[in-house]
Amino acid sequence: MRKLDMDQKQSVLIIDDNQQDVNSLKKLLRKEYRIRSANTVEKAFKAIGTRNPPDLILLNSLMAGMDGSELCKKLRSTPKTWNIPVIFITSEFSEDEESRLFKMGAADYLLKPYNPLTVAARVRTHAEIKKYRECLEVSYYRDGLTALPNNRRFEEYYDSVWSFAARESLPLSLIKVSIADFDWYIDNYGQQAMDDCLMAIANNLSHAARRKTDMLARTGREEFTCVLPNTRIDGAIVLAEAFRASVSSLGILGSSNDTDVSIGINQGVATTIPTNDMLSKKLLEAAEEALKKSISEGSNQINCKSI
After folding, report:
1. Is the dihedral of CA 222, 227, 228, 233 positive or negative?
2. Residue 64: which of 15, 17, 112, 111 has the closest Cα?
3. Rounded to an integer, what distance in angstroms lies between the CA atom of residue 127 and that of residue 84?
4. Which helix (H) or strand (E) holds 295?
């Protein structure tokens, strides 16, 4: 979940191979929005796939060599883009065409030739809906201490990437991370020191999980879970090692009787290739079993399980 800045201009991506139409839309919208454009599918997905995807997409339904309906369906079925509003650009209007666009997942449509007031009003409406929906998501889906996605958001994202992986026969991995001796640290250093430590660990883990499709969430009092789409066991282990190194770099939590005490984590890694007849909880259970084995072995342990 990206950081929300209410004062920053929202971004609009125009996907259209008619440069004259693109220029017209830019002229109408550039004062209120940051505008990007793409005239091919490849350029469109490159723009959408950045760490700062657009807030709104204007899509020409009839581009040379591209089916706008297929692009819209792909956006709707991809976890990172399913909630970006798509406004279709069309020169045809009928009840059948309107129904077709909405069935494809369109948020709205614009008719050519453009009416400037209509363009401004419809784009503003959907941009504002997107902004305020993100405001609600920040409070509803974010952990109050670490600012990471919370368990509610994790479950929704996990379900979506599971379905996508099953449909495309792609590998999916999970890493469960637990702070070793969590209660002992609280007893000896206090809750405030542990809260500070949790925030530092969350920050370091977030920097280690760099791919835009990976999600790190706080899913328990001392537990984090990372979802790794399209990742096999070897790739997940590499990230688990990076997690261990990033937490070790934090050094000590504090001192007790003049003895420095280092913070440690345990991890459980699990991987599978989901199928339509497999329950998503199986991978969660496998990661939990691997984590329990790590905890039983001490601190800074990593155990793996493939199903």
Report:
1. positive
2. 17
3. 10
4. helix 281-297
In three-state secondary structure terms, 35 is: strand
End-to-end CA distance of the chain: 29
What's the topology of domain 11-140? Rossmann fold (3.40.50)
Confidence at residue 292, expressed as pLDDT on a 0 to 100 scale? 97
Equal fold, 11-140 vs 151-306: no
Q: How far apart are CA 93 and CA 111, in angstroms?
A: 8
- Which amino acid is it at 112? K
Q: Name which CATH class applies to 151-306.
A: alpha beta
pLDDT at position 256 is 44
Q: What is the pLDDT of residues 277-306, one digit of tens each?
A: 999 999 999 999 999 999 999 889 999 999
Spell out the domain ranges in the chain.
11-140, 151-306
CA–CA gap between residue 243 and residue 256 (Å, rounded): 26
Could you identify the residue written with the tokens 């079925």?
77
What b/e readout covers 34-50, taking b as 16+ CB neighbours within 10 angstroms?
A: ebbbbbebeebbebbee
Q: Tell me: cis bond preceding 113? Omega within 30 of 0 counts.
A: yes
Structure tokens at 67: 């089916």
- Those residues whose C-beta lies under 8 Å from the C-beta of residue 9, and which sit 6 or more positions away, are 32, 33, 34
| Contact present, 55 and 84 (Cβ < 8 Å) | yes
Q: What is the pLDDT, as a whole number, of residue 257?
A: 45
What was the pLDDT predicted at 253? 58
Mean pLDDT of 48-77: 81
Q: Within 10 Å of residue 74's Cβ, how many Cβ atoms?
A: 13
14: helix, strand or coil: strand
- Examine the pLDDT at 255 and tell me if it is beyond 60: no
Overall average pLDDT of the 61-82 stretch: 76
Q: Whole-structure pTM over 0.85, yes or no?
A: no
Structure letter (DSSP) for residue 142? B
Q: Which residues, listed in sequence order, are joined to residue 303 by a DSSP beta bridge?
A: 268
> Other C-beta atoms within 10 Å of 192: how many?
9
